[in-house]
Amino acid sequence: MDKKLYVCVYGAAGADIDRVFIDESETLGFEMAKRNMGLIFGGGATGVMGAVARGMKKGNGAIVGIAPSFFDTDGVLYRECCEFIYPKDMRERKKMLEERADCFIACPGGIGTLDEFFEILTLKQLGRHDKKIVLLDVDGYFDPLVKLLCGIVERRFAAENIFSLFKVCKGALEALDYIEG
Ligand code: AMP
User: Fold this and answer.
1) Is the pLDDT at 72 greater than 80, yes or no?
2) What is the pTM of this model?
3) For 41-51, what is each residue's pLDDT tens digit?
4) Which residue's CA is the nearest one to ligand 1's atom 17?
5) From CA 47, how far away is CA 50, in angstroms rounded?
6) CATH topology of domain 6-180
């Protein structure tokens, strides 16, 4: 039997976001569970993170949360993980997320998500890993970022091949098809 694929999902902790982001994140989690994939994530109970975890839970999927214990205050962490790991700090957390996952999906999020996306992308550019990376462009959220990256390449601050290091997908199903392909 094939080894279970663990997908690291990065995404917003903040809950005050449009419904479309929550719904697509729940769909992502539910579809991952249906496809027998596991979730590795930052362990948050709210925003995009919470929605992906709830979708996974609905589909009885395996959920691994990784967050430093200073997050462990009322309502912040998702309680229904199969496994919860408490690294000593955010840096160790990012390393664990990176090492335990087989691939990465960056969903809409704030600066925490951007930090995670760019770190994993930079490491791939440097040949430190060769795992698939998806930028989940729900409702055109990442269009300005893609435009920025085009400008960066145009002005020769990065090589054109940075676009071969990740895939922009418009929805959860497209992202998972790419990851499984
Ligand atoms: P942001 O995109 O700024 O909302 O930050 C979300 C990302 O940073 C997630 O992918 C997490 O790994 C981490 N993070 C930020 N805030 C939290 C939180 N309250 N609980 C868990 N992880 C968080």
Assistant:
1) yes
2) 0.96
3) 999 999 999 99
4) 13
5) 5
6) Rossmann fold (3.40.50)
